[in-house]
Amino acid sequence: MLPTTSECRICSGVVNEFFDFGRQPLADAFREPGSDEQEFFYRLAVGACADCTMVQLMEEVPRDRMFHNGYPYHSSGSVVMQAHFEETAKGFLAAELSGPDPFIVEIGSNDGAMLKVIAAAGVRHLGVEPSGGVADLAAAEGITVRKDFFEESTALETLEAHGTADVIYSANTFSHIPYVDSVLKGVAALLSPTGSFVFEDPYFADIVERTSFDQIYDEHFFLFSASSVANMVTRFGLELVDVKRLPTHGGEVRYTVAHAGSRPVSAAVAELLREEREQGLTSTATLERFGANVEATRERLLEKLRSLRDAGKRVVGYGATAKSATVLNYCGIDSDLVEFICDSTPAKQGRLTPGSHIPVRKPEDFALPYPDYAVLFAWNHADEVIAKEQGFRDAGGRWIRYVPEVTVL
Ligand code: SAM
């Protein structure tokens, strides 16, 4: 079979596929029990551009299928993320937003976890958020929100109505947007001459190092690195001026981008670019090793869950995360192996996980009674979950993790 290729969304170069997860459902399409509605499936495969190094999905899912009134992810669902956004907002208020009448735009403001701090400080702001349900939650907190997709037209209308932005911020959203061309033209027009575009997204080097293949799903269209981001922004008259590794969501990088030549480039940029070159981050050898590690994780996880089932142990899951969709469907895990999954998001409770159809229940059901084992699908919030559920450990329960490898804690 010939290797599969596609055209790079950034530079039109050749994207070479390196892993195929097969047919997958939408990661956030939690299903009503008894629903006879046809589930939407697409081919989840990932490739790297031979020219600009950008790692990207081979197939794009239409955006309205993913981001709509019922979009279930709430930024404020984790206390760790709430603290992260509060600290981020305070950082902006103390620096970039400390001049006269500053203005900040957030792309993908969700339920307003970051902007509520900005709004409380009385600073001009605009959240751009297409998912109506979460946008309404933010508006109810007194945050100014435009219910829309951010793209060039939205940016130009914002510029017309409010003037240039000192900061454009985006967390866990820019990597969700295949139409980069439109977004970055909009950013370049809206950003003030001295402003910064700051975005944070899962870091491909962390995904490779930890075999966190569950970061790959429909919404995560791009898996960024310093190298691919630097190449991407240059095409729009912008420049990568700073990078910072973050522990959020299992390993991210905060990229700071500015108009080319408007700011000094920090030493951290050259350092991360050098590390990526030395690692051979998108070399064939690295990508093949990643693929082999993904297959090994699947085998070990299935072996563990099957042996627990055969020994008559009760196993449930913790965190019906979007990430869990890739693990469950790629590994073929259903309610025969994992009885139910607890999740604190009301919009997911009482529903079934996409494709694998495992019931989602309230976290309170976890202790009724405690199971023998719990698979930590929310592994990126491990410290928060394990501390909150100390009673499970005290009752003799054991956690199962699969990142960076299958381990029983
Ligand atoms: N920024 C929040 C955070 O980090 O918790 C939300 C992240 S959530 C994973 C992704 C968000 O991006 C969703 O709320 C979705 O509706 C929004 N989104 C998707 N495409 C967008 C676009 N073109 N412009 C603005 N927001 C978008």
UniProtKB/TrEMBL annotation:
Q: Which Pfam families match?
A: Methyltransf_13, Methyltransf_14, Methyltransf_23
Methyltransferase putative zinc binding domain segment(s): 8-67
- Ranges for domain C-methyltransferase come to 247-404
- Entry's SUPFAM superfamilies? S-adenosyl-L-methionine-dependent methyltransferases
One GO BP on record is: methylation
Keyword terms of this UniProt record: Methyltransferase, Transferase
Q: Which GO terms describe its molecular function?
A: methyltransferase activity
Keyword Membrane on this protein?
Answer: no
* Alphabetical list of PANTHER family matching this protein: BLL5978 PROTEIN, TRANS-ACONITATE 2-METHYLTRANSFERASE-RELATED
Q: What is this protein called?
A: Methyltransferase
Organism this protein belongs to: Nocardiopsis ansamitocini
